[in-house]
Amino acid sequence: MKCPGQDTQYWDQNAIFETQCPECGHPMEFFKDDATRRCGHCHKKIVNPKMDFGCAAYCKYAEQCLGTLPEEFVAQQEDLLKDRVAVKMKQYFGTDFKRIGHAGRVARYAEKIGKKEKANLAVVLCAAYLHDIGIKNAEKKYGSAEAKYQHIEGPPVAGKILEDLGAKEKLITEVCDIISHHHHPKNSETINFKTVYDADILANMEDCRGKEQIDADTLARKIDGIYLTDAGKDLARQILIQKG
């Protein structure tokens, strides 16, 4: 029996919808099971804002419905999850393009560092996209974006987003733990935490580049002292020193 979530005869009127390209505003048509489409005007590849591949692609009950899933399929589920998290993060921040841009940059750096350090990219990328998700409530409740308030407010928001997307409990727990102290590493941390930490530090230092007059040797020593992974140090030297 074909899963109703994948059978087009069960699709409702919302299964095919129009949206606007977030890059240029040109109208775009999506089917609910499209992963991405290219904008007909600016040709930018856009992730489906209502991504729905049919329940088998992401549903937490897919295994109960379809039986044991192949490892490749499980890996694909996690890969799709980070794209869906990115969309949710953008929706949550709305027009706060500065924070959306920062989260996207941290995710790009985290993916580069994580691949070299053999981190769990599903955890790393979800945490990277959501690491500052507590800022909005921190500013609303405390009038401050200080780290201690982000650490309090971030995990509940991130946990709800991941739970709604059907993420596994183990992944949710680890991502929320990273977010809960992402500015302040403990004495012993996982490679997943270290990857996100280094990516965030790199994005922040990149923003400050040019504002601080630091010579290359001093900056190199600073990188060696702050970053937690070898891949993070290499990427920081490449971006902050070699590219000037």
From TrEMBL:
Q: Which InterPro entries match?
A: HD/PDEase_dom, HD_domain
Single annotated GO MF:
hydrolase activity
Provide the HD/PDEase domain boundaries.
Answer: 95-214
Q: What is this protein called?
A: HD-like family hydrolase protein
Fetch the Pfam families from UniProt.
HD
Query: What lineage does the source organism belong to?
Result: Bacteria, Pseudomonadati, Thermodesulfobacteriota, Desulfobacteria, Desulfobacterales
Keyword Hydrolase appears in the UniProt entry: yes
Q: Which CDD domains match?
A: HDc (cd00077)
Keywords assigned by UniProt?
A: Hydrolase
